[in-house]
Each structure stands twice: as C-alpha cells, then as structure tokens.
Design brief:
Length: about 325
C-alpha cells in the first residue's frame, strides 16, 4: 500500500511545498501564520492568515484529487452558484480560496422556506450542468450513471467478499449471499432511472447547510469531495436525511415539492424514480467511501472502514 495521505501531510516537507505554492498565489500578500486544524483520510485543510485576510487551503489524496479541477470548472460554468477559488492545482489536488465567512448553518437555523429555496436552486444548477457532462467527467468525477450501477454493485460485493476476514469491509458468506439475492432489485432500480425523464448530472453528494455559504452576493455551494455524476434525484438523499433527523420544524414534503417544480413535475411524478434512487445511491455512496479511504492508514481503516459496507448493505433495506 502506498504511504498514507494523513502521514504525508503531517510532515515538514509537505508543509514547505504547500506553503511555497500558497505564497506564489497570494498576489503579493504575506503569510502571517499557518495552522492545520484537521487531517482526515480524504482531505486536510490549512488555515492561512495573511496580510490581506484569512485564506483556506485544501489538499486531497489521489483518490479524491479530482475535486480541485472540478471546483474550478464549476466556478466557470456556474459562477453564481460556486465561488471561484483563488488557485487550484488539479494534478496535486490542491485548492486555495479566500475565507467566505460562516456557513449558512453557522449563521442561523434553516427554515422550510430556506430549504425550498436551496433545493430549487440546486435543481436549476443541475439542469445547467447536465449539458456539460463530458467536460465535468473529464475532471475525474466518479461516473455513477445508472447504466453503471449494477456493475459497481457486482464489483463491490465480489471485492468485499474476497477481503481478508479481519478487513473492516469483509463480507461474510451470508451477507454476500443476501446482497446477491438483491441484485434483481438493483437492476430494476437502475433500469428505472435509465428510462427516467430526468438526466444524470452533478450530484453534490453531501448537500446540507454547512456546505453552503450565505454571503451578500447570494448562496454559494462548496465541498465537492463527495460529488458524483449520477441521476439528478440522488442529490435529495442527504437533504432528506438531514431534515428527517433534525429536531426543528422543517418539513420534507414542501422541500421536495419545490425541487420537483423546477423540473415542471410534482412529487407524485417523481415517486417511482425517487424510490429507485434510495437503492442506487446506496451503491454509489459505497464508492464514495471506498475512494475516500484509498489512501488511509491502518488506524484510519479501523476507525472509518465500516463506511463502504454500511452503505452497500443499505441495499438490503427496503424504503
């Protein structure tokens, strides 16, 4: 296994290279201080105080490095929805951006109306980006179109069943058999979405109000590390989960209605396709976690390694 990402980014040679790159893209501003508040298997951030204010630097491991080029491209394609980074190095998976202030969640609790506005905006963004699939996929964004879902499912069931028993993603024979029994259900869901009137497009993958800046210029999405090219409705999985788990007064039904209306549809029109995405998104979320841990250390696998199997075995649950 290659050296763990988290070990590399904790060492001085990496910090020297990162600081040098950051300094070269500050347009004459001076670095005052650099702190590293967090290291995860899938990313690390540096908080960079400069003579012209705070900046943030994000670095991704090879399995997630596509986010840098993707972010830059999305800022070109949708500048009203995605803030343009100060600089990116797509090959190394590095992003430098100014501090945009608190996230929407940090500013205030979102209401039902707020969620309706956000999801309507996301639907319009998806419609615009659906026309740019070739360019967006060329950044390395994971291709999770429904035509690929069954192959991904087969790949992971086989892979996890063949892992050593002490691996966090190992499937015992019983669970592997149960998953294979659900293959027709995965096929049916994928076929439903292939025939759907809604397209495959950018699926943010982790859409909630802590991944949205609310500035005087308007809402800006960020953190595309979990993004995929997938059926449009898969973007609803995380918002629904967040809203259902929230103890506040936000109601899911009007939020779904606001999203559907941007496609000139109703929630009833979306019901069968939406049901199918609960199955396909389980497979695709497994891929997200597997890629996120591709450069993890043994200790990180012990801490986070249940993620891929957790999501794959959601296929066994019937929504």
């Amino acid at each position: 296994m290659d050296r763990a990402f988290s070990l590399e980014v904790a060492e001085e040679p990496w910090h020297q290279a990162a600081r040098s790159w950051i300094a070269a893209h500050l347009d004459g501003a001076e670095i005052v201080s650099v702190e590293q508040p967090r290291i995860r298997p899938w990313s690390t951030q540096l908080r960079v105080e400069t003579s012209r204010g705070r900046h943030w630097f994000k670095a991704l491991p090879p399995g997630a490095a596509y986010e840098a080029g993707l972010h830059a491209l999305l800022a070109d394609l949708a500048p009203d929805d995605v803030a343009r980074p100060v600089a990116v190095d797509a090959a190394r998976g590095w992003i430098l951006d100014v501090d945009h202030g608190p996230t929407w969640r940090e500013q205030r609790a979102a209401t039902t109306a707020d969620w309706q506005s956000l999801m309507a905006r996301v639907a319009r963004l998806q419609q615009r980006l659906a026309r740019h699939g070739d360019a967006i996929l060329a950044t390395g964004l994971p291709d999770c179109r429904p035509s690929r879902t069954v192959d991904l499912f087969d790949r992971f069931v086989t892979l996890f069943a063949e892992l050593e028993p002490d691996h966090p993603c190992h499937l015992d024979a019983g669970v592997a058999s149960d998953l294979r029994d659900q293959r027709p259900r995965v096929e049916t869901a994928a076929a439903r979405l292939v025939a759907s009137p809604l397209p495959s497009t950018l699926q943010h993958g982790d859409l909630h109000t802590d991944n949205v800046f609310a500035s005087p210029e308007g809402l800006r999405l960020f953190d595309f590390g979990d993004a995929q090219w997938a059926h449009a409705l898969e973007v609803l999985a995380v918002p629904r989960g967040v809203i259902d788990a929230d103890e506040g007064d936000v109601r899911w039904e009007p939020v779904l209605a606001a999203y559907a209306a941007e496609w000139d549809l109703t929630p009833d029109d979306l019901a069968d396709d939406l049901s199918a995405t609960w199955t396909t998104q389980s497979v695709h979320r497994c891929l997200t976690w597997w890629r996120a841990l591709s450069s993890a250390s043994a200790a990180e696998w012990s801490e986070w390694g249940v993620g891929p199997v957790h999501h794959l075995t959601r296929v066994l649950s019937h929504d």
